[in-house]
Amino acid sequence: xxxxxxxxxxxxxxxxxxxxxxxxxxxxxxxxxxxxxxxxxxxxxxxxxxxxxxxxxxxxxxxxxxxxxxxxxxxxxxxxxxxxxxxxxxxxxxxxxxxxxxxxxxxxxxxxx
Length: 113
Known about the structure:
Layout: E1 8-10, E2 14-16, H1 18-30, H2 33-39, H3 44-58, E3 63-66, E4 74-77, H4 79-112
Antiparallel strand pairs: 1-2, 3-4
Helix pairs in contact: 1-2, 2-3
């Protein structure tokens, strides 16, 4: 099945794409950066680095993390984090609709070989 993968380059020098959005989705679902990282087969350090990268890019936190230990801690998307995911998903949906006829035509050509 053909698909479209979207990456958005933002000025100055930042970008968001499927990996960062998957991380934010996983944080929302698990309530934890470490659990989110594990659920998408990403290292904890990489997850934190991506969260920090997005915090810097958007000028405010996308994830609110609480320090804790064994029974404390946790993380949740901020209003900014929710907005990033919502906007990315909307762009993705619109892009898929716009390119669907072209992808179908390309897939038909592949099927003819």
